[in-house]
Write a structure and sequence with these properties.
Length: 471
Amino acid sequence: MHLEKLIAEMTAITDADRCITHPDNIKTFLEDWRGNIKGETPIVMLPISTDEVSSIIKLCNTNNIGVIPQGGNTSLCGANIPHSENKRLEIVINTSKMNKIISTDIHNQSMIVETGCILTNIQDHAIENGLFFPLSLSAEGSCQIGGNISTNAGGVNVLSYGMTREHVMGIEVVLPDGSILNDLKGLRKDNTGYDLKQLFIGAEGTLGLITKACIKLSTLPKSYCSLMVAVKTVDYAIKVLKSSKNTFTDRLTAFEIMSSSCIKAVEKYLPNHRIPLDSSNPWHIIIEVSMHDNHPDNNQILSYLEEEVQSNNLIDGVIASSETERNDFWKIRHSISEAEKHHGKGIAHDISVPIKDIPIFIKKTINKLEDLLGPSNVFVFGHLGDGNLHFTKSKPKTMEEDIFLEKSHAVNRLVHTIAESYGGSFSAEHGIGSKLKDELEFFSDEIKMTLMKAIKKTIDPNNTMNPNKLF
Ligand SMILES: Cc1cc2nc3c(=O)[nH]c(=O)nc-3n(C[C@H](O)[C@H](O)[C@H](O)COP(=O)(O)OP(=O)(O)OC[C@H]3O[C@@H](n4cnc5c(N)ncnc54)[C@H](O)[C@@H]3O)c2cc1C
């Protein structure tokens, strides 16, 4: 279809101001969060209803046009960016205008939301209703629930509450032919055949565009106790993880590790952050315990901290004495990616390995990367309690940027091969997108790939939804 005719038909579906075609206005939709992956498209659509989404996708499907679903644009693997490979036209459907909270059921502890709801708005609305939505990640002020579901996002509370998949009771999704699959009943029990919503969770928009979701809420903790502690080595961090699991059992909701390079970068580039411990301590950990009793036993936390210091597991530690101090701890953790960006170019990884193998994984990977690229800062942080680390090798000072970036593929393969050699994963929570397509093909079992491609072909025979991602 000729572009002018396509724009006229798209404008007939939405108003003209929600069919964006001016290159200056389109720019912001064409770059991933790190600014490494850039795309192109002549059209960005901003629908406000499921029916509009359905009409747009139907029009694309019948005219051989690819559709890129886009939420808050915080993907770290280019999953949300159009590429127009092979000169096939791709358009973006950005869901930011579908941002209503539709209903909250305090008895069922559930909420029905439109796909474009920003994660913090959902968290806040749950609290206003005396409930809790446990999904929490550094991009929560920008990312949207549709993006969270489509990436099966993890975050800082997985240890106790699980990944996004655990919080989804139902979805409404527009399929590649424009038809609408509605499964928003929010039932806790419904064994009526295949649980189809599971296919769309973590599918990165390759099977359909999620327009609404029924999400599961949890009981709101009465209070939190947050500690920031420092340890000499990752082996000690694992000891502390074990002892805190034994002491706090299922009340332990977060256990986040940060290397001193991360803390120093936050200290240097984001000076409005208060760093409570000496930033040169080799490893820092945020431990968070959620309390559900009216009168929590704070002495238990204090004696835990004292015992761990006395047994030399910890170098130092501090307990947040107020909500402000707790927020200060989390502000540091949530700002690491931002600080990394200020530091300069880096090659980032999101791996998981069995917890017991994390110390050897880190040591081996740092050494091998130094052999390959020379010495430079390595930022290591993440969800130690889930065996998931974010691991970035930054550009050596003397190396030219293009030479460094040319080595991305070799660096990725090296890090991912080491992770896989310990029975780990090369993509723990960020997904595949366009960045890790080669790695998926290389590391995946043949039968898994055949099944995934068969599912894609069955649901999306014209390859309309998010083409050139995953495969
Ligand atoms: C600083 C920072 C920290 C992060 N921390 C974490 C973390 O701790 N854990 C974690 O898991 N991730 C993390 N991420 C990655 C990212 O924030 C998450 O993957 C998030 O869930 C993406 O949501 P989004 O709305 O921005 O989606 P986008 O980036 O817009 O899209 C992501 C993918 O979802 C698809 N998609 C979006 N909306 C829909 C829809 N309605 N229907 C179908 N497909 C759709 C897109 O096509 C794309 O494939 C982080 C990102 C940043 C920038």
